[in-house]
Amino acid sequence: MTDFQNVKVVKHPICCHNLSIIRNKATSAEVFRNAIRRITYLLFYNATDDLELEDIEIETPLEKCTVQRLSSKKEIIIAPILRAGLIFSDIANEIMPYATVRHIGMYRDEDTLTPVWYYNKIPVEFDNPEDKIILILDPMLATGNSAIDAIKLFANKKVPQKNIRFVSLISAPEGLEKVTKAYPDVKIVTASIDNCLNDNGYIRPGLGDAGDRIFNTVEN
Ligand code: URA
Among all residues, which ones are annotated catalytic? Predict the structure, then answer.
């Protein structure tokens, strides 16, 4: 963990190496996406390292034995924030094929730096909210405003904070400060805490606009 409560920085050499690729502005969209995918596996294994297990009896070709699998009581919900969060969702789904994927559509008002909602595939209320595990996906945790809005959506439906995880590639200290203050028990997993935000709310040194680089819509 870091100076921020419940923030895990995944400092694996594979993450560092691939961060060096995606930060480089000369990297093509294809190479950018593939480098993010390699980091995504490590982020997810860390974000899910405390999932509850249950015992079951099975029979190997040799004998009966007790093994552990993910608890069947818990429903895992993957919630990518559109559009950049989509880069994480295929791999999250590959690792957890039984998970539900519920998209959240938000874009940032560039003047106020506040999130504007345009899509929400989350049910009005949850049965057994204490049995939901939520993985909110957004590659850039910058001002923290959209992270807080997305977390609030689930917290207001009575999902315990400790069941909510926020997965990002790169985070800004300003955003982490805000999110961890508002939701101290939400676990945040990231590959880097960068230096600061610039006046436009972009992370420095960062990687620019993640959505534009993923979807090859960078305007020169
Ligand atoms: N969103 C991005 O895509 N990049 C940033 O640096 C901040 C927010």
Answer: 108, 112, 209, 212
CA 114–ligand 1 middle distance (angstroms): 13
**Summary mean pLDDT of the chain:** 96
Helices H / strands E in the chain, number of each:
6, 15
Distance CA 140, CA 74 (A): 27
Atom of ligand 1 nearest to the CA of 209: 3
How many Å lie between the centroid of ligand 1 and the Cα of residue 7? 19
Query: CB under 8 Å to 125, separation ≥6 — which residues?
Result: 157
- 193 ligand 1 Cβ < 6 A: no
Q: Read off the pLDDT of residues 84-129 as tens digits, 9 standing for 90 and up.
A: 999 999 999 999 999 999 999 998 888 898 999 999 888 888 999 9
In this structure, are strands 115-120 and 64-70 parallel, antiparallel, or unpaired? unpaired
Is the alpha carbon torsion for 207, 106, 186, 136 positive or negative? negative
Structural element, H or E, at residue 97: none
Q: Which atom of ligand 1 is nearest to the CA of 211?
A: 3
Looking at residue 149, its pLDDT comes to 96
Query: What CATH number belongs to 7-214?
Result: 3.40.50.2020
54 bridge partner residues: 69
| Tokens of residue 35, six digits | 């480098």
* pLDDT of the residue at 121: 82
